[in-house]
Specification:
3 domains, six-stranded parallel beta sheet, Rossmann fold
Length: 424
Amino acid sequence: MIQIKNLRHGDALPEPASVALDPEIVQGARAIVERVRIEGDAALVDLTERFDGADVSGRIKVPFEEMESAADALSTELREALDDMAERLAELHDRQLPQQWEEESWGVRYGEQVKAIDSAGCYVPGGRASYPSTVLMTAIPARVAGVRRVVLCTPPAQDGSVAAPVLYAALIAGVNDVFRVGGAHAIAALAHGTETIGRVDKIVGPGNAWVTAAKKEVYGTAGIDSLAGPTELVIVADASVDPATIAVDLVAQAEHDPMARTTLVALDEDLPSAVIEALENEVAASPRREIVEAAMEFTVIYSAEDEEEAAAISDHIAPEHLQIVTGHPRGFLAKARRYGAAFLGPLTPVSFGDYGVGSNHVLPTMANARFSSGLRAADFVTVSSWIEVQEGANDIVGPGVEQIASAEGLAAHAKASRIRRHPD
């Protein structure tokens, strides 16, 4: 049942989403991580058979020849679409890398160096579908950043196979190795390493609650991109929109997952009822109707008095996706502050961002857009500062350094500066 709310009638905004996880899942993921750390490949084989019904004994790693032959299983049209997506993503992420720089003042040279991390592990979920788009979204920014070793883990089918579109995407993205392992045990293998899977510096990519719990558990042993929750969409719309189009957009987001969160913020009092009417037909026609109907239980429609109130509602939710379908979408965008990616105007569906038109689709969920960004090439580099003191500069900056060090009770810090200065 879709809820319609109005803040001016006393309805409250939802509690900010959080990445709180079921304690049983947290404990279960922790046990899996520890088991993989100790047992290595043997644990991966057992857990993959237990959770995915697949026997991967002796074949955890996908042979490169299997990756190469995946192209033959795809239509020409799909291969070309994936090739085009890969090219767009490479161009997009090439703009995101920080630049090295240096400066000199007070006789001190200083700057920053930008270096790619050595290795990255991409997690690509399976289960309800295969996701070649997520392969490209995670592996290409790593390659653009200059990461030397990029590997991929994904759950296998019951026969142990990995979907051909996923393998082809891995091939064109420059993935070094693909492993037929999913779930929390895949995250554990990427973080700690096994006989077959070498440990990586950073793990990226979305997954279910078990994957998220495992990422939280291994953080510190390896870096992670974020702790992801269910996918989210906020649509801000006014009287200029076609309600049937909004209904399609809501269903498109809901078909991802039964836990998907969709919200409409209506700037026209007649829009909520018109969208609900259009949704009845759209949901009924969906090939993933059961998933959509389950997700629609979380759908909320807010009636907003003006764009300022609409922006306040959207910012409170801090959604993964913000779709702005108003007469002046850029004007509203200037008012909004918290979102993963924004899609402007009646001609821009969120699915464009899902498939590499101007955005990465690994985006912050669970209100994490308040403090984090979507996956970027910059996430695969480290930025390190350096300084070099020139002759005589100690006499200029040293006394101030010594004063502060002494005030903090760090005598050796002050002395390290003082002994490098010229005698008075």
